[in-house]
Amino acid sequence: MKKFFFNYEKKIINDPQTKKDFLKISNFEKKKYRKYSKILGLRLNLIHNEGYKVKFWQKMMFYFLLIHISQCYRIYKSSNQIKKIKNLKYAKFKKFYIPDTQSEHREFFQRSYLGQEKIFSTLVEYLKIKYSVQKIYKNNILKKTKTTKVKYKFKFNFVFLRIFNFFLKIIKKPSVLVSKCYWSEESRQRIKFDFLGKIKIHNFYLPTIKDTSISIESRRYLSETSKKFDNFDKFFFKTLSYSFPKSFLENFKLRKKYTLNFINQKKLEKIKYILNESLDEDNLLLNALSSEKNIKNIYTEHNFLHHPFVGSHLDLILENFDKYITSGWLIKNNKKIIKGGSHSHVFKFPSTKKNKKQQILFVSGILECRAPFATSMYGEFGFKASKTTVENMNIFFSNLNNYNKNKIMIKQHPLSLDKNYSNYNFMDKKVFNNKNLIKGKKKFIHFLQNTKLVILPYYSTPFLQSILFNVPTVVFLNQNSYFLKKEYNTYFDDFYKTGILQKNAVSASKFVNKISQDPYKWWYKHDVQKARNKFLKENINNVDFEMTLSKLIKN
Q1: 416: which of 39, 232, 424, 512 is 20 to 30 A away, CA to CA?
Q2: How far apart are the C-alpha atoms of 91 and 542, rounded to whole Å?
Q3: What is the pLDDT of residue 382?
Q4: Cβ distance 295 to 273 under 8 Å?
């Protein structure tokens, strides 16, 4: 298939470029989310013959709505540029695959050019823009993302704990359910043991319902426009006829039935709290339905600190959960936020011992063409930001001395070469040799024992891991895409002062050239360790999490 919109996208789509842009667009998207969730909540009640409050529907679909609004608006706000295109071409689909689930929706409309092509064609027709060529695809159906089934292998670690917890499960009824929290197996077993059966850990999920017939009438009603709508509202609702996941519409009643059967199990009758670290639609439906039974839903922070960045979706998570357990930070006067620490598996290191033969490791992330929504916490997402990130990495490598060009090993994210995620590949053979690339899907955490210096061109989980493991770390960020909220303007100041954060790729390469022979000499300086310890104290705390759970149970 010829990519019409994809070729336009690189030239005319205006991704946010400044802090002001991010603030303006993020506020717009969230304003529309609040408006549309009320309208859709009322319509879904009529379609499904339910009487739920709007809050129920918001809990269930807020993440989908935010993403879809953003994917539509990033194209819509470039309408004037689109109108100026000469000999405009676009794809028209006679048959278009409607996503079964929220996750499929994201794959199709954020990560796939086909979903973007469909939104683009809808906008062209809505604006009645003249076109010279219209390519019609008779049998073009969006292909589903292939998933690899992971076979569970029983491990004989912690055998005593497993046996003890098995009998506890039989005789005790839990008051806390933990679902989709990414904890290590050791943490899971120890927590169940420590709380003597009062905590149940079960990753709730619903099987994907396939090949459901489309309810044309329901989709027509759901996507109806109103005279009170502005132009973007009308365009957005037109896209819902083919983008609204079946899991919210055609398959809702069956999914609701399965979820209620799970909640209403006799062994779960004493559940008062549900902890969840994922925003997947199965657990968001569990959140919505369990809230109807007065069960409190608590979001535990994932392994990424996004709250300081402009466009963070923290406010929407807080709106749709009863409490938020952070990795260790706190916002004063916000009663929903609990400074509880983290039990995430990404912070459970294989060993605290470091090997003598140590390497220098450059870790690259995923360069996605489009961000899920307007936020500066994904500073390497978007066409221009991705391109800038690539350029910065090449500048960094080209300014290294020969010692570092030969010594630095490069660890890529497993998804970084997937075209669904990015159309950029930063490997420039003129800059460095392919022999430096680490092959395989071994996780970053397993390299830390054998690493004396970590270099990162972006802000994400590996940054927190290396800081926690106390490995010398140097980071250079795209200054034109990472923006902090006003109240967090000094968030990284100590890191910049001590050299952990560098202002650009050139200064980063010069700094690495200076310290790479013995990075620990710099890393263990008083001011560097002071900055590290201060950051960890204010943001990540692995000690208090079980105390937080204990308070919940006593409550």
Answers
A1: 512
A2: 51
A3: 86
A4: yes
487-507 per-position pLDDT tens digit: 999 999 999 999 999 999 999
Tokens of 422: 């990015």
Number of neighbouring beta carbons within 10 Å of residue 147:
8
Task: CATH number of the domain at 289, please.
Answer: 3.40.50
Domain that holds residue 61: 4-145+233-243
Domain membership of residue 82 (yes or no) is yes
Lowest mean pLDDT among 25-39, 274-288, 532-546: 532-546
How many angstroms from the chain centroid is the CA of residue 487? 23
DSSP SS3 for 297? strand
409-423: pLDDT as tens digits: 998 876 665 544 444
CA dihedral 486, 491, 496, 500 (to 10 degrees): -140
Question: Looking at the structure, do residues 466 and 522 belong to the same domain, yes or no?
Answer: yes
283 vs 6, residue with greater confidence: 283
Largest distance between two CA atoms of the chain: 72
Least confident among 240-254, 309-323, 337-351: 337-351
pTM over 0.85: yes
**Which 3-state string (H, E, C) describes 96-143?**
CCCCCCHHHHHHHHHHCHHHHHHHHHHHHHHHCCCCCEEEEECCCCCC
What angle (nearest 5°) sits at the alpha carbon of residue 344, between those of residues 343 and 345? 115
Residue type, 529: Q
What are the C-alpha distances in Å from 25 to residues 18, 32, 459? 11, 11, 22
Whether residue 372 contacts residue 110, with contact meaning beta carbons closer than 8 Å, is answered with: yes
Residues 47 and 96 in one domain: yes
Are the C-beta atoms of 69 and 236 separated by less than 8 Å? yes
Proportion of the chain above pLDDT 90, given as a percent: 59
**Tokens read off for 112:** 């796939």
Distances (CA, A) of 196 to 118, 161, 200, 284, 548: 53, 11, 10, 28, 16
Residue entry with tokens 């980063």: 508
Q: How far apart are CA 111 and CA 368, in angstroms?
A: 7
What is the predicted pLDDT for the residue at 144? 47
Kindly state the percentage of the chain with pLDDT values over 70: 87
The single-letter code of the amino acid at 200 is K
**Residue 504 and residue 396 in contact, taking contact as beta carbons nearer than 8 Å:** no
Q: Same structural domain for residues 429 and 342?
A: no
Alpha helix segments (H runs only) across 429-503: 461-468, 493-498
The DSSP call for residue 214 is: P
